[in-house]
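Key result, reporting period 2: structure in, sequence out.
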């Protein structure tokens, strides 16, 4: 066995491997910046046609109409004339496994799931690879923040929120351990396989599975009520659910699931709840509003789940829930989720095409998501005092034809928009221009 391992190791060193480095993270902001004359979309529904956006030491210091203010000549070190362009707050990708898996077919690069059913103590952030090549493909579309979320089990673990230009997970952190993720059991199951699905059947273990979740929450809460001789790290990690410092993200789509999940959280005194997925949330929107529960809506570029549903229902869902007074964000989990996260702004664009106005659609991936992740005091809108995480686009950022970034900033740092793809584009342009 030893000689075999040595042989494999030697063989690995003999094989030439071309490693493409991630773009170097930008240094801390040292010079103040003023962006003038752009159309500023503040992320809260407000638009300033000829704006002045200033920031210093990583924080926004000025948001105003450039026609109504006067600034000293040396008020800012650098001025960017963005006439004819648009400024947006950085987009936020929630419920993402970005940085947890690099190549799906290579198991050593896959660290999104742990063994076991109840893992609230599993912290996704320590497995986050800040040097993932996938990350740099998101930034040119304006996605600058993400919630890194584990998968698997009944309680998959604890997520954290990061900015997408860093040397390490410690550098990346915006909010550590923001919430715990519960995968609520389905009330129905489909037999067969994905390529040959069978009939839908009732989940006979549904009541038992809910009781298991309830027992876990009761025992977790009881752990804090009386001193224990032995430490229980699993129970300890749930403390934030009961004191309101963490959010319980409930992953559920069915109407019955959602109703039962709400009752479960009420019974156990869990203060902050967000629904993830929520395909049938529109059926019980009044209940969600009554309990102050927002929705991170499942991927809207999808087909209806039932044959008798409107083919455009996934596109209309954000409009339906918004009209009911629900705070709605967009998430993109599912097949090819990491590499397709770059399409998040275009999911919002589809929602705009099916009922929402453009500024409402923008809120789905900025201020609304920031509220649902409890980071709205730091980002999600262009407001003084918040992080200077924003970008300049030549056109409408929700339209894939015109969303062309010229500059992007994370906490005031001007970041690189280069990717492996942009470098190849330049390389082959030069090749064909030579002819």
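The corresponding designed sequence is given below.
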């Amino acid at each position: 066995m030893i000689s075999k391992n040595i042989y494999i190791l030697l063989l690995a060193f003999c094989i030439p491997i071309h490693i493409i480095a991630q773009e170097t993270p930008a240094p801390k902001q040292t010079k103040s910046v003023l962006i003038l004359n752009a159309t500023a979309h503040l992320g809260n529904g407000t638009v300033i046609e000829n704006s002045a956006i200033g920031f210093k030491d990583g924080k926004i210091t000025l948001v105003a109409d450039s026609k109504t203010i006067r600034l000293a000549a040396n008020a800012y070190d650098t001025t960017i004339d963005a006439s004819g362009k648009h400024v947006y707050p950085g987009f936020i990708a929630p419920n993402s496994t970005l940085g947890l898996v690099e190549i799906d077919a290579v198991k050593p690069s896959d660290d999104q799931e742990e063994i076991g059913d109840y893992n609230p103590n599993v912290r996704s952030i320590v497995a986050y690879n800040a040097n993932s090549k996938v990350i740099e493909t998101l930034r040119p579309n304006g996605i600058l923040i993400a919630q890194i979320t584990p998968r698997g089990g009944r309680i998959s673990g604890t997520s954290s929120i990061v900015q997408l230009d860093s040397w390490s997970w410690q550098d990346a952190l915006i909010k550590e351990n923001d919430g715990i993720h519960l995968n609520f059991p389905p009330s129905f199951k489909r037999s067969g396989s994905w390529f040959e699905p069978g009939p839908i059947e009732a989940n006979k273990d549904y009541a038992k599975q809910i009781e298991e979740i309830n027992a876990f929450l009761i025992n977790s809460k009881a752990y804090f009520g009386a001193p224990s001789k032995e430490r229980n790290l699993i129970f300890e990690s749930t403390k934030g659910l009961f004191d309101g410092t963490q959010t319980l993200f409930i992953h559920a789509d069915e109407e019955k699931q959602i109703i039962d999940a709400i009752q479960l959280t009420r019974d156990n005194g869990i203060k902050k709840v967000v629904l993830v997925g929520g395909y049938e949330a529109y059926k019980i929107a009044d209940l969600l509003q009554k309990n102050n529960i927002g929705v991170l809506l499942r991927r809207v570029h999808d087909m209806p789940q039932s044959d008798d549903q409107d083919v455009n229902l996934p596109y209309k869902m954000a409009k339906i829930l918004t009209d009911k007074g629900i705070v709605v964000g967009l998430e993109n989990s599912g097949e090819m989720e990491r590499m397709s996260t770059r399409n998040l702004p275009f999911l919002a664009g589809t929602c705009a095409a099916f009922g929402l106005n453009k500024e409402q659609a923008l809120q789905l991936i900025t201020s609304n998501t920031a509220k649902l992740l409890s980071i709205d005091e730091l980002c999600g809108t262009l407001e003084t005092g918040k992080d200077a995480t924003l970008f300049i686009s030549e056109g409408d950022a929700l339209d894939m034809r015109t969303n062309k970034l010229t500059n992007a900033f994370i906490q005031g740092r001007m970041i690189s928009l280069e990717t492996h793809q942009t470098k190849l584009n330049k390389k082959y342009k030069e090749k064909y221009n030579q002819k």
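Residues 1-19 have pLDDT under 50 and may be disordered. The chain has two domains: 20-90+380-434, 91-379. This case is discussed further under Risks and Mitigation.
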